[in-house]
Amino acid sequence: MKRIFEIDPWKLTSHTFSKEDKRLQESMTSIGNEYMGLRGNFEEGYSGDSLQGTYYAGVWFPDKTRVGWWKNGYPDYFGKTLNAPSFIDLPVTINGHKLDLATDKISDFSLSLDMHQGLLTRSFIYEGKDCRVQFTFTRFLSSVIKEAALIKVKATVLSGEADLQIASHLNGNVVNEDSNYEEGFWDALNEDANGRSIQLRTKPNNFGTPQFTVLLKEVTREDGEVISGDVTTASGEVSELFAKTLTSGQSWELEKDVIVITSRDVADEEQAARADELMAKLTSKTFAQNLADHEAVWDKRWASCDVTIDGDPAAQQGIHFNILQLFMTYYGRDPRLNIGPKGFTGEKYGGATYWDTEAFIVPMYLAVAPKEVTKSLLEYRHEQLPGAFHNARQQGLKGALFPMVTFNGIECHNEWEITFEEIHRNADIPFAIYQYTRYTGDDSYVKDEGMDVLVSTARFWADRVHFSKRKGQYMIHGVTGPNEYENNVNNNWFTNTMAKWLLGYTLERWPLATEAAKKRLQVTDEELAKWQDIVDRMYLPEDKELGIFVQHDTYLDKDLRSKDTIPADQLPLNQHWSWDKILRSPFIKQADVLQGIYFLNDHYTKEEKERNYDFYEPMTVHESSLSPSIHAILAAELGKQDKAVEFYERTARLDLDNYNNDTVDGLHITSMSGSWLAIVQGFAGMRYNEDGISFAPFLPKKWSSYSFKINYRGRILALEVEKDKEVKLTLLSGEDLPVKVWDQEVTLKEGQSQCLKD
Known about the structure:
The protein has 758 residues and is of the alpha+beta class. Among the domains are: 11-303, Beta-galactosidase, Chain A, domain 5; 705-757. The chain is 30% helix and 26% strand. The chain is built from 20 helices and 32 strands. Strands 1, 7, 8, 9, 10, 11, 12, 13, 14, 15, 16, 17, 18 and 19 form a 14-stranded antiparallel β-sheet that branches. The chain has a five-stranded antiparallel β-sheet with strand order 20-27-28-29-32. The protein is globular and about 85 Å long.
């Protein structure tokens, strides 16, 4: 655990520059606007250890994956997000010396990310031999003009005289840190000195996936007016140099405006004209005016999604940070996109889409964003069904197999135990349809497009199971459950349970499908009978003596022991133990059985939940960022309030406190919804089904109060929990709403509040 930023409800601020923590700082000060994003790299450049990272949404490359142990059905390539051409570069020289914080003496360092709107500001004083100069850099990515980035630099001479040179630089000569031998993935197409632009294309590939072309254009302004400097070009680069001599007390401020266009939206030959058009729109307003427009978008978002916590500034900072990063990554404006585990903050996980979205993001977005945002996530998977059919065929199976990792629906992960075995995703992803339907009350999707997904995945499961004649039950062998610290196990309880659920839900919904869906899918009576037989006779491992669901067939044969027996210097396990030792151990990476109990919460009694929680949690090391939130929610439901708060603090500040010692690689974006889920579904006990919504709140001991708003079936509901178990409910807008709080049922009317006590 390491904390490098000061505690503040709405800002990340540090007054210390630590070279050792540079990558950590870069991850935490990443910003984005759904269309593009970048790590907190320094505009002037940095020669020390750093992970340079600029990323454009939906722009990726199919890297080679064929190796000596390639197997039939294995993905042809590993999809990876690309470190894209950089647009923030503003190298500075002072009296002929290149500014570089890796080597220069500086003072009064300050770095701040304003979480109201993602405004990043950095300042410091350069302590030179013949002058002292204060520099301030400010930048944001517009939420109004998605293709726009705005960067500002101000230099003020505090003593002496400074001959300053600042170059506005666009740099396409970038590489991924994980590439082989610094292999590049971009080919330069054009450098336009007059247009201050560069155009590049991803290298050709042999897999039939698209090549992407990008165009970057910049202009520089001083006092609001476009200025011209000395322009030079090189392959994949353009640079414009500006110079000024300042004496003590004088300042110089430049603004760099950037437009980024990709071929996902604009054809190659039309990109320059489109960039000109957008640049004219951007420069018709000042930096301050563009920032005000950007802030207005965020003000509206925060008004509907903010969670307030009184009495615990660290907890408040954590959830503000997580919501900011989530919404900078995805807010549903482009249905072709999804949410990668690292978002725009690093290369790890390839920048692709995982099952995390449906399992962890959808429950939050349903309540804090317009319904259309979640609908876009559902449609994203529907559009990728052709790839899912391909994946199933690759394994010699019927139906559709959604990928573990993807950009286009086709599996592109290069670990066999994930690609072949972690197939629980093929029920987790359709589970989002169930959640959407229950929460919104809108069954139009599940009746039509959603039925394509349900039936196609049901056909996969019906082919993937096998029937054990010895036991007279259906089984699923050779899988990896959510606990990735075990591979190739038989009858993972979670996988079997979710496969059974998927088949059962499909059977339940099939009679209600639209006639168009029924005609498309042509489900036979024989198929329906087979699905029902699997539901009726699915094997679910259980130990009646312990009263628990068994994680998989041989789990109880392990050397079972609590994680407290692991020496502290051997944690996290994935950074200290061999993979063989991890696989043989009883330790659980993340919720597995408990994930199933969370998903299908109303299927189990409180006693069943408690026995399984008490058995599995002590062996869970929570080395997946997805783990703490599930345990927080279940702990809260079971009355283990202190434990619930402990897990909330971990999920809320997972990155801010670097709990897993891996935030240097980027933020854990898809787990960030966990802090919201821990409060709303955990502390406030929100549950919903077809019939309505209920709450069972408690107030953490350290907190004075907390509050949040949700949208629910066309209403906006505010809930505030205060001391002495008092709860205030206010229906801010919408039709009358019946709500259950603990065992009390009330009907809320628009504009009215009701206060309840347990």
